UniProtKB/TrEMBL annotation:
It comes from the Eukaryota. Keywords: Signalosome. Pfam families: PCI. GO terms for cellular component: COP9 signalosome. PANTHER family: COP9 SIGNALOSOME COMPLEX SUBUNIT 7, COP9 SIGNALOSOME COMPLEX SUBUNIT 7/DENDRITIC CELL PROTEIN GA17. SMART domains: PINT. Residues 1-170 form the PCI domain. This is COP9 signalosome complex subunit 7b. Belongs to the CSN7/EIF3M family. CSN7 subfamily.
Length: 241
């Protein structure tokens, strides 16, 4: 199978679309009964174009479900789709509602986002293992789906069995992970400031050298002009008979 490329002009469309879809579910869930809430959760995890769920988990009536021994599995289900991976599903599936084919593909797509975030390349073998897929064809079909949903960007290197990644959409963030993200942003900001200062220093140095460079260039042109004049004068002298 050849390379597949994402639509770079729509790299953030998935987040806008996902947020728009989520708002409708949030309105319905805000005043829903327990039975209605469970139905909404199952709709959400089967919704093919929804990939962010964190705001639903923050609803007060969802917190009530979390504390119910019989219903907590629906809260856990939503948590896995918000923060987890296919491996988390496998580890907990005995305590979760049954997964439809749509849910299985969706948790694999979400896992693919997590596996490709912050890296440049990842081998097909690792992806096959983590996503529990049986063939390279199944894997490449999943990757193509992720491309066209704008979940990740990059290209497939089929000959080397490698996925090259240039971008992966963000997933929901746990509250306890926020301080870690802030520290990463501070580090990134410091690096940007460092490179900015270096550019300014280099620019100032270049500006300071400009007069010297212009003077040197002018001297070279003067020497060339003098040499041309000398050659012209020599050519005009009468030759000895």
């Amino acid at each position: 199978m050849g390379n597949a490329y994402p639509n770079f002009s729509k790299h953030d469309s998935v987040e806008r679309s996902s947020n728009s879809i989520l708002k409708n579910y949030l309105k319905r869930a805000a005043d829903a009964t327990t039975e209605e809430l469970i139905a909404i959760i199952m709709e959400v995890v089967n919704e093919p174009d929804l990939f962010h769920f964190g705001e639903l988990l923050d609803l007060p009536n969802l917190q009530i479900i979390q504390g119910d021994a019989k219903l907590s599995k629906y809260y856990s289900l939503l948590e896995i789709f918000a923060f987890g991976t296919y491996s988390d599903y496998v580890a907990q599936k005995e305590h979760l509602p049954n997964f439809s084919d749509c849910m299985l593909e969706k948790i694999r797509l979400l896992s693919l986002i997590s596996l490709t975030s912050g890296i440049n390349t990842i081998s097909y073998d690792i992806l096959l293992e983590k996503l529990e897929l049986k063939s390279f064809t199944e894997l490449e079909n999943l990757i193509i789906s992720a491309f066209y949903k704008n979940l990740i960007m990059g290209r497939m290197d089929s000959s080397n069995k490698t996925l090259c990644v240039s971008y992966a959409v963000s997933r929901d963030l746990r509250r306890e992970d926020i301080p870690i993200l802030i520290e990463k942003m501070k580090t990134w900001s410091g690096q940007c400031q460092y490179f900015y200062n270096n550019v300014i220093d280099e620019t100032d140095s270049a500006d300071a050298l400009k007069p010297c460079r212009f003077e040197a260039i002018n001297k070279i042109f003067e020497k060339i002009q003098k040499l041309e004049n000398d050659i012209g004068n020599e050519e005009q002298k009468p030759t000895d008979q």
